[in-house]
Amino acid sequence: ITSEGLESFGGLGYIEDSSLPTLYRDAQVLPIWEGTTNILSLDVLRALQKSNGEAIHALVKHTKTRTSVKDRIQHFELQTEANTINTWLETTVGFVSEVMESDPYMMENAARDFAFTLAHIYIGELSCSVYLFYNLICRISSA
Predict the structure, then answer these.
(1) CA 125: distance to chain centroid?
(2) 39-77: per-residue pLDDT in tens?
(3) First and final CA of the chain: distance in angstroms?
(4) CA–CA distance from 65 to each of 20, 72, 85, 126 (Å)?
């Protein structure tokens, strides 16, 4: 549409004094999807498919183990955070299972959001772990 609008102005549409050439260039560049983030997102999907889902199950096992240390989590009042992380994880795994069964190609459309969601889950789990470790070190050093 932009290129047709640009052509309607004739030679004036291509003069850099107007904003039309910029719009035209942006319209040509924006459809390119393969930026670094998207390539990495597709690589996450490839690894998931190559492992037949074992990669996501390993993440689930790891995250559940790290967020279910009840005595430490409850002592430092991290139960709400741990529950939130596990809810995100269960929702994400449920989404992936549902989509992979119904339309595996749809996962490519959701690859970027999926990769970012996995990253947020892992960051949340690491934050809880670091907080627990930091408090443990503080207790040992003050003893």
Answers:
(1) 14
(2) 888 898 888 889 988 888 898 898 888 877 665 666 667
(3) 71
(4) 56, 12, 12, 12
